[in-house]
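Data availability excerpt. The first of two example chains:
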Amino acid sequence: MIELTAPGRSAHTAQGLRRIGLSGSERRYFDLHAVLDVKHSRDWNDEAIVPLVAEDPRRATAMAEGALIRLQCGERCFERYRAHFGLG
């Protein structure tokens, strides 16, 4: 689930790096993750989350809470980036 938030961030980061003149090899990580994390998310769900929750449905609550905590931390991180770089 969280992995699905990564492709958009990676794509925007790659665009910013392209805009400031970084080469393809310098942007490679972000260009790749803009695509790869979609499959990674699907695999993570299919191979880890679904089987674990099927084995014990009580795990779903803890996983969902962890995902929300991760998203909140990410939001705080990007708010800090915006403040630091004067992006509003």
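And the second chain:
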Amino acid sequence: MDLSLQVSGNFLGALFIVKHNTPELVVWNWKTSEVILRRSSREIATFVFLASHLLLVGTVMNEVTEVTEPRLFVLDISKSSTIKLTLTADYICVFGFPPFDLVVSPVKIIIRSDPSPEWKPDPEARIPFSVARGQRLFLITTWVEEKNQKQVSYDLFAPANILLSYVPALPPQTRRHVINWDTWGPTGTRFLKSPPHSRVWTGYIFGSKFVSLLTSPKAIAGQSSQTLQMWDFNQLAMKRATVLGFEKENVHYVNDTTVVEDDKVFVKTIRMSLPYSITTRTLPPPHFPGQATFTDAMCGEDTIFLIKSDASHHYLWVLNF
């Protein structure tokens, strides 16, 4: 059984995926033990809390048409209900993805976002400021199986306020509204082949930041260094940097349009223009050939964690920024 847990304020969400059984998503108020929501559908694959009263659920299969197509459903949890429904029985809206070619098949989807919408910094830490809730980044990774049965993954980067901006704009009591990719994706996201990030450690995203560890073949042989990248999608910071003309060493501001053009995977060319920055740091090389290099990177509000291990030891490096 695969079990996925998410906590936001008083809510605890759990997704149960059991072989030969239909996946079930349940949300409780953990303080009162009240069931808030129950959904059961073959297509449910992943979920996170989008806001204090909203869930974001990812799928790769359309249960009605039997067609594989990634989608993001927004569910309302402001009113409790113990009735078990299918995913598509009641939802606010669904966000579409770029259309994939018929010869490829999306096989898996995972949504990552941290911290939860209700998270607040520890007051004892006396942090002068923190990332606004609307700037929280959602990273949606989709694995696609190509015609030669090789799997490749694509990452969709989307800030919370982009997704949330479409919910209040809908007419009151609107249900099952479809928001096509061309409406929300090109200016509100970045969608590209997955940069390196862990498939085991899930903490590679925090607030508006995403961390990536790049390892060259020489680094594996103990002859060169690794590179650490911090991607920041904080739009307020990007606007400030653009207006004031900030230039920093090892910081690259990406304002150009990203073009994904792969006629073997997608039906048409995809263009996105959400601004972001990349801060790059070169890590020290191994002291001797064969010494273990870092294998994974995670990040917190002001900290980066680097992990490496050898035959007898595990190492954790902590970097502050």
